[in-house]
Amino acid sequence: MRSSKRAPGTTSDRHELVEELNRLMAEETEACLRYFQMRFRLRETDYAAAQAFFEDAIKETMDHATTIAEQIRSLGHIPTLRVKLALGGSAIRLKDALAEALDVEQQALEAYKDLLPRVAGDPVLEPFIQRQVEIETEHVEEIRAFLRTKGIVKLVRDEEVI
Amino acid sequence: METWKEFEANELTHSAAHHLLAIHEVGAAYGGWARVSDIARRLNITRGSVSINLRALKKKGWVQSDEHHLVKLSPKGLRVVHSVMAKRVIVKTFLCDVLGVSEEQAEIDSCKIEHLISHSTGERLVQFLQFLTSGAPVSRQLLKQFRMFHTACPENRTCDVCKGHCLIDELKHAI
User: Which of B142, B84, B93 is nearest to B113 (CA)?
Assistant: First the structure.
């Protein structure tokens, strides 16, 4: 018996969909860990300037990962988290940290966009992924705006100091 | 510099080598251009990680990107890939054809060290392989004798190679 009207229908399609969701969950979890560590690479003034940004980003990415994990569970699977990460590096400027954050968010956005056609018609997943695309688009724009203001202002000020 | 520090300071890290090889393989069917998502899938890591790692490769001038976020090896990056692939073949050939290691194990081991050996060591290995396969009687004889050389370690566990501390025993105790 088909358990629901949720797409896609075949077992292999469903398995592949769960794998895609696992990958998305890994993107979000990894982003969360990156933000967690990245803020400590900022110099003192940058650290203070970006503290709220990073706290929000950590919370938001972990919320997204949790929501995806719940979606996987609702499909009858246990979430599988594959994260290969060792984070280090030297001190960085806010501008560079934000550029890295932008890369990560842009990739998450692309991943959600790629998944959207595959969940078309699913009453739960389609609106969920659609919403995630909207949220990630906003987030990318926020970082771009932050980069335009804080990042550049900081860079100019740093150069002036030099 | 101590050897382990040299390992860390290697300009081409294991991760970078695999990213470059993945771009080369994924992009082969698309004029060299590869998508971040395909590279991530190939390496079984996240797109975010690939994206961050690509920044370092771009900085070194090994990779270039276009306005659609597609990436391609630069001529310099392509030379690095060819060098890594050549070293892989050299090491694998040495392991398989000279030492008699199984092809499967040789593939794994050559993958692990392909980017770590120096060009000079690679060159000497090629010359050694050329010597062994040259068909000269002395080469044929050497290879033949080595393949038949399956001697047991001496009772006292010492020989000219191990110098009092049996290396074969140490290998057996490895995890």
Answer: B84
pLDDT tens, position by position, A27-56: 999 999 999 999 999 988 888 888 888 999
Q: Identity (one letter) of the amino acid at B123?
A: E
Contact A108 B50 (CB under 8 A): no
Task: Answer whether B65 touches A (CB < 8 Å).
Answer: no
Report the helix count and the strand count for chain A, using DSSP H and E: 5, 0
Quote the CA–CA distance of A133 and A143 in Å, as a whole number: 15
Same domain, B65 and B87: no
Q: Is B165 on the interface with A (CB under 8 A)?
A: no
Contact flag B51-A108 (C-beta cutoff 8 Å): no
3-state class of A42 per DSSP?
A: strand
Right CATH number for A11-161 from 3.20.20.70, 1.10.1660.10, 1.10.3210.10, 1.20.1260.10?
Answer: 1.20.1260.10
Q: Verify whether the Cβ–Cβ distance B52 to A26 is below 8 Å.
A: no
CB contact under 8 A, B47 and A34: no
Q: What are phi and psi of B71, to 5 degrees?
A: -125, 155
Question: Taking the model in full, what pTM does it have?
Answer: 0.77
Q: How far is B119 from chain A (nearest CA, A)?
A: 28
**The domain boundary residue, chosen from B98, B114, B133:** B133
- Average pLDDT of span B83-105: 92
B52 touches chain A (CB under 8 A): yes
Residue B133: per-residue pLDDT = 86
Range of the domain at B50: 3-73
> Above 0.85 for ipTM, yes or no?
no
Structure confidence at residue A160 as a pLDDT band (50, 70, 90): very low
